[in-house]
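The passage that follows is intended for readers who have already worked through the single-chain material. We present the inputs for a multi-component assembly, then the predicted structure in tokenized form, and finally a short commentary. You are encouraged to pause after the input and sketch how you expect the pieces to fit together before reading on.
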Amino acid sequence: MADGYSILVDTSKCTACRGCQIACKQWNQLPGTPTKNTGSHQNPADLSFETFKLVRFSEGVNGDGKPHWYFFTEQCRHCLSPACMSVAEKDEIIQDEKTGAVIYTPKTKDLDFKATLEECPFNIPRQDPKTKVLAKCTMCFDRITNNMIPACVKSCPTGTMSFGERDKILDMSKKRVAELKKAFPKAAALNADDVRVIYIVTDDPKKYYQYAAGK
Amino acid sequence: MGITRREFLVVSGAFGIGLALSKLGVDMGPVAVYAAELKIDKMKAAKQTITICPYCAVGCGIICSTDTTSKKIINTEGDPDHPINEGALCAKGAALFQTTANNPNRLQKVLYRAPGSDTWQEKSWDWALDEIAKKIKATRDAYFIEKNSKGQVVNRLEAIAHVGSAALDNEELWALQAMLRALGLVYIEHQARI
Amino acid sequence: MTNHWIDIKNSDCVLVMGSNAAANHPISMKWVQKAKDNGGILISVDPRFTQTSARADIYAPLRSGTDIAFLGGMIKYIIDNNKYFPEYVLNYTNASVILGDKYDFSDGLFSGYNPNAKSYDKSTWAYKKDDKGLLARDESLQDPMCVLQMLKKHYSRYTPEKVSEITGTPVADLLKVYEAYSATGAKDKAGTILYAMGWTQHTVGVQNIRAMSIIQTLLGNMGIAGGGVNALRGESNVQGSTDQALLFHILPGYLGAPTASLATLEAFNKARTPKTVEAQSANWPQNIPKYSVSLLKSFWGDKATKENDFGYAWLPKLDDGQNCSWLNLFDQMYAGTIKGFFAWGQNPACSGANANKVRQALAKLDWLVNVNIFDNETGSFWKGPGMDPKSIKTEVFMLPCAASVEKEGSITNSGRWAQWRYKAVDPPGQAKPDGDIAVLLMNKVRDMYKSGGKSPEPVLNLKWDYVDAKGHFDPHRVAKEINGFFQADVKAGEKQYKKGDPVPGFALLQADGSTSCGNWIYCQSYNADGNNMARRKKDDPTGLGLFPQWAWCWPVNRRVIYNRASVDLEGQPWNPKRAILKWADGKWVGDVPDGPWPPMSDKKNGRLPFIMKPDGQAAIFGPGLNDGPFPEHYEPLECPVPKNAISAQFINPTIKIFGGEMDKHLTCDPRFPFVATTYRVTEHWQTGIMTRWQPWLIEAEPQMFVELSEELANLRGIKNGEKIKVSSVRGEVRAVAIVTTRFRPFKLGELTVHQIGMPWCFGWIVPKDGGESANLLTPNVGDPNTMIPESKAFMVNVTKA
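Having made your guess, compare it with the prediction:
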């Protein structure tokens, strides 16, 4: 399925304004959860059944001694062949033919959560401990089927996030990586052939986040 | 208001999420995503109001969707037509929804704290404004300075001070400064000074 | 901003210094990114590697409080390497003007210093005049006493090595920044500066900005697309609140507040209206009498007549030299002389420097009126930590008000765009729009004064009819008053205006009482064409992002001010590829020109570009400020070094230092060995009183934190995420430690100095374990021109909790 939609996340432009993180909460009316500062600006600390979009912060020092600060605004990759679906038996998890969005239905409460999570290369699925239902980014399915773009993409000021037809997004991705390679030889688009949410990085993906490019 | 509703108009032939999912043969049942379905349908019928973000001075455009039945704001997101933000919003602007009455922490009652008290009392506007007006007059009558020590006419009041606000509208501010200056205040300051 | 947000995209080099624009004006980065997409570069100069630095092409660290050293080094670089724009400098700045013989500068002090008064006699800074009374000049720019040569001499001391010793910036980084930025001196290159509180919150705040203004005028960056001096203002309508003069020292439209020795309107107008003899200077302030009289007509309506000096006497007068600014206000409140206080949409218990003093001061009030949308540390001060309610007699009124979407009106962004916004829903419960609260309150006061009281005239004579048929505050009525009306039939040129017509623009305001105008710079905002602030047309004829018909900006919808400096003497743009303005077929095309006059080559009718300066030229030498005509590096009041490396003068010699029991400060002391600065985060707003009550935002930034270097953490045995205490001589705050590579110790010569940083968005009222305000630590000492507190550089200690 090469058609449908894709989202491009060009981390080289991200400023960690967290508009996307909050816009997702606002659109989906997800609650703000209690958090603590554990020595990072990253909060909540992880994705959850109430946090579908999370800006991950990581910092270090470059070869030239200057600091770097990477922002990785994570969400479900909406894989072309979702591994989580392999655990499903019927239609607990559905993949929309037209858009490619991978959607968890209420029936996911019947799935083996541990197994589902294990299958996902990106460590995305989360479970509501009360209802046992699984939750994650929906690609704003309700919006994209109504001539609107996902809330996170709309919120992004810098052009870090783009939404569109997959072939156009793949084009954009290739062009941008070629551009970035001049200053950043390690620039790459992660898992572009396998996922609909494609991240562009300028350094080793592990420096952004453990599972940035998958397990 | 003339906002383009290209993002909010349903192109003829398109449908709500409930219909979309039922086309996929899914019975959604009552969960978060289903609730979102109601939201997108409500938004199509909602009153759309243009506003400008109340936080930093970039001045991003925001559109509030108000449900005409409940009269509550059900969505806030960027105004795609605004030339500065083009629909984008940072964390604070994106959270504008939580400055509205949807936030139970909003002050909704006039409160008074008596001398020595450790609690608030609820009061009416009439009572509170009456009391404040009396205090303004009493303080002004007691401390108004007509002439300074040099005998120059100064007509000022130093015993009442005011700070605020960079969050008010221009029209409110102009009226407020006129009122304060007519009362003779000179200790007039606000966020710009700090 | 002299320019505006979208214009940033036109820049070849964006310098962000004294600002973390990515975090605090996040959507500005949309336009910075566009500048980068067009081949421009971003430079971030900051004590800490921030979100802005993460996107920058060049990052340079500098110790808080040393910006003048940094910029002074850049000025030296520009002159030494001939990077300035010669025709621009010669024609549009006072570079050629010769200084008077009395001017001198020696070892940190300018001529005319009075150590007892801690002030300067500025007359020694006056320019030389020729026998015709014109400014004496040397157009070859060689005379040793001409401004350009004196500039060169002044900054000859700011070598890269000396600068590095002061700022802690490696010399290589200094030169990288200097080289990149000074390249914008080329005719076809534009450089812009984005700055904010990182520059203003210092005892040398105004001079920080002066230093950059000098750089921008040397490089020819004023008035051009992608150039300018861009102050990133702090709040959604702080530009508006400043324009409408909610400050003691001004009246609406930046007219100076009247002082006691100016007993009549005539005396006021005479003193405040500058004169010039320079042939091609427009000296726009010569029109001030038209604006002051029109303002008085708006204040008092028909009660203001020629016979009663248009009600001038009813305006309160400051004593000559009296300063009622924030720090003095709270000092007076602490002393008990202020009985009643309005904290109207502001939270001084957390935003005031030396917040302990503010909180104690509040307890001395007889009465406090607090207007806000949420409970806050100011209105509830009496039950805050360390407060004993039984012993506090202050009566407090907490009045719930409308949020931004619950009323209608205009706000003005940093780019001077006044944008109208609408009401989505009614305010909840008892909450009222602030305008309604003001109307109801003042109506009651006026009623009471009808039966007598002290000096009732100004109270009763105030024009106060800003309500609709239902008695509600009517923003449209006020907006129209701000724009102004003809109060009599007036003929202007060919056109006949009738009494009651709106004034089309400030060029038609009169000094004889035949016009009223609440704020001359907003004249045109709501005229016969309608509410121009509500416009939403997306035409952009120049392609430079001016959007001339989106909303309305002051003055007269001119989007880039000083734009006459963007063209040569013939009116042709220095850079035709980004032409803001162009003279063609006998008229100006592009932005609204900064005055309709023809180009300068028309010796009779052409005018210089800096029309608000009496002599029409940009001031490289600026003889009007309290602390000197050239910026000079002085250490902050609290600093980590025993002396100033560049002169014998340790700190700014003209600052006011309070000496009361609550006004402690301590410099270069081993008990407080680390430099501290304060800043903001995207997720919270100022003191946090709007945002800490919002679950989505407090989730993202839940607790007070301190960012510190790995080296300092090691020194104190602090681990990332651990609870720590940070203290100054004024107070103590607990925080979570964020140990980071983004702060590094500064090498200042032989000395190693650590710096930490913290946000000031927390307070005791919510959340329970969120932490307290960083302003409990900051010093209440201010810039000698503005009295803005030095919240950005002071000394602290950090220990495990």
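Commentary: Strands of chain A lie at 5-10, 54-61, 67-74, 93-95, 102-104, 126-127, 134-135, 161-165, 188-190, 197-201. The longest strand of chain A covers residues 54-61. How closely did your sketch match?
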